[in-house]
Amino acid sequence: MKALGNLYRRRIEPGRVGSPELARNLAELSNDVRREVGVLIDRRGRVISVSVADAKGTEFPDLRMGENRLSGFHLLHTHPRGGALSKGDLSTLFLKRLDAVSAIEVRNEGQPGLVHTAHLTPPGTVGEEEDWRILPPVPAFQIDEFDLGAQVQALEEEIARAARTRVAKKDHERAILVQIDQGEFDAEERLDELAELARTAGAEVVHRELVFRRNLKPGTLVGAGKLEELTSRAYHLDADLLIFGQELGAAQAREIEAATGLKIIDRTQLILDIFALHAQGVESRLQVELAQLRYMKPRLLGAGAALSRIGGGGGSAGGGAIGTRGPGETKLELDRRRINDRLSFLEKQLEGVAQRREERRKGRERNAVPVISIVGYTNAGKSTLLNAFTHAAEEPRRVLAENKLFATLRPTSRQGYLEGIGPVVLTDTVGFIRDLPKDLTRAFRSTLEEIGDADVLLHVVDAASPGADTRLDAVNRILEDLGFRDMPTVVALNKADAANPEALDRELERTGGIAVSALKNRGLAELKEALADAVSGVQRAELARQEEARALAAQYQ
Ligand SMILES: Nc1nc2c(ncn2[C@@H]2O[C@H](COP(=O)(O)OP(=O)(O)OP(=O)(O)O)[C@@H](O)[C@H]2O)c(=O)[nH]1
Ligand SMILES: [Mg+2]
């Protein structure tokens, strides 16, 4: 024990891997305890930690890993059973961004044998096999010949140069997507959707990966080995964001972040972020902030050190890093009490808005104008269809339609006209997505409930992208959850201009829908007819109900 403690007093010449004396000490000790013994050395040649463990078990100080630098330590340790650097040694080198890792082989009588040393290679060498370079082994008495200082300097210059060009040309966060495939038939489609979400949030997707896992690891989901691989990829592709296609628990996110040193975001956070970017108007802003806070609360409270990162991105809707954007004035850097205060404030505000809206709704009922609610998966073309329907060519009446997910968050109503019916109100609303995060469903409850005020639903389906049927099912499931599944519904198979004709035919058959192109103004007359039929069906049913009620009343008179 004492001998181990003495190692702390050792110093070596700065810029060297070690000294022959230190190598001898370590080999001797290692021979005595029959275990690996290692020291972590800083750039001034001081021993800052001693451990009896293999490289992975070495105790590291709280390493401040700036993304542009190495950690400033190198690890010198023994291999009591001999042998070159192990996989574990090398991955520790990589993950801890060590200046170098060296292994001293221990001979029979505790004599130091060959010393093996490896250091990192510059980033961006994709295609090259390894993240590190292994130097030819040298005998322990030559351990101080290699100029580690010069090597480190060259490497750091290289890294800094890469970082400078990156800052110069990068206006998007570079992201790696990970979708876990547990054998679902639509895993690939989910990955596509994740890529669309990432793009909408402003990320540049530099790599996407479907990871097949029948069983998930509780801590890291995909396992340490896969995380290592992803970290290596991120290093070479200059990515700093890892986006997971499934929701991560607070502890999972932290563990994965600790293991990779990357910023970790899950699908829910990504969706919340897009909502935050697109939120306009008092109500949606409140709703989004409420959903974000609810989601972040357990994560912020357990986060400790990670908190500063979450809060640091700047909270304005326009700027800031992905996952940190918020519509409210408040950034997400709140403590527990303030979170709770803010949550109840938002809830109260939203109640007020909902009430005012309720009053507006009553006003509309008195008008007795039929209402058609446009629903559907996000990006299906709902807003484009509303524009086409209401001939809202002129700017002020036009609603925003763009190739982004969740472009529309706020319900918008426009007056339209149906032959044989007269004026109708068409309402465009927030799009759906499979596995809609429940914090969002809750926050947008009143918006979603407004759908139920309609007389008829117009379900818009994007028939041009693959997986139209799974998206249609996802929408139906959400409608069912909301209790709207038995409302009269007309299905519009939109983007018919871009759809594969056979797939379109199949969907027409399956749904009894109508093929339209909102963009090219095709099929709209037929769609209007179907809507008029549905509306008059509702009106007839309503008349019959009133009739019946009158008859019933007459009986009791
Ligand atoms: N090819 C083609 N593209 C269309 C058609 N209708 C809409 N789009 C495109 O699809 C994209 C999404 O349209 P939006 O109207 O914003 O879709 P949305 O359903 O309102 O989407 P969110 O509000 O984001 O949920 C836009 O880029 C439109 O130009 C169509 O009939 N054909
Ligand atoms: Mg829209």
From TrEMBL:
Residues 370-539 form the Hflx-type G domain. PROSITE patterns: G_HFLX. This is GTPase HflX. One of its GO terms (cellular component) is cytoplasm. Its main location: cytoplasm. Monomer. Associates with the 50S ribosomal subunit. Keywords: Coiled coil, Cytoplasm, GTP-binding, Magnesium, Metal-binding, Nucleotide-binding. It is found in: Cytoplasm.
